[in-house]
Amino acid sequence: MKFLVDECLSPALVNRLQTAGYQATHVTHLNKSGWSDQALMAVILDADWTFITGNAFDFRGPAGTPGSSGGYSGAKIHAGLICLNRPYNDSRRIQLELLEEALSEINELEGDLVNQVLEVTLHDDDTIEATVYGLPT
Fold first, then answer.
1. Which of 50, 54, 92, 103 has the fewest CB neighbours in a 10 Å radius?
2. For the residues of the chain, what is the DSSP string, one character each?
3. For the segment 32-90, what is each residue's pLDDT rounded down to a tens digit?
């Protein structure tokens, strides 16, 4: 798997992914900062990136109906989407904590995330929940 980290997340996530043995880069490292979601989706799909974002709605659509809208709504096949759902006033530490949970889930899957979404959510009571589901469904 190779990962592309969205510009809304810390570049420190790239370092952690590389330490774990994955190929990873950040949107800013590709000089794609400020690109529209649609333009970024073309890059993600063409290069088979597993995309990591903090903007779940923009890419998977509404939580209740994933795939009904958002960047991945028209994708027939993709390398996977990881949504780190956290408060907007989060810290790099929180992002790294959620990434650790995502890496743990990926290890349990013993494969890849082709046509799947991995959502890692930090709840108000500080518990972390991970959910994996297919997209397209």
1. 92
2. -EEEE-TTS-THHHHHHHHTT-EEEEGGGGT-TT--HHHHHHHHHHTTPEEEES-HHHHH--TTSTTSSSTTTT-SS-S-EEEEE--TT--HHHHHHHHHHHHHHHHHHTS--TTEEEEEEE-TTS-EEEEEEES--
3. 999 999 999 999 999 999 999 999 999 999 999 999 999 999 899 999 999 999 987 78
As for how many domains the chain has, the answer is 1
Q: Token pair of 65, please?
A: 């109906």
73: three-class secondary structure by DSSP: coil
At which residue do the structure tokens 């330490």 appear? 19
**Domain with 94 in it:** 2-134
Backbone Cα Rg of the chain: 14
Mean per-residue pLDDT, 100-118? 94
Q: Does the pTM exceed 0.85? A: yes
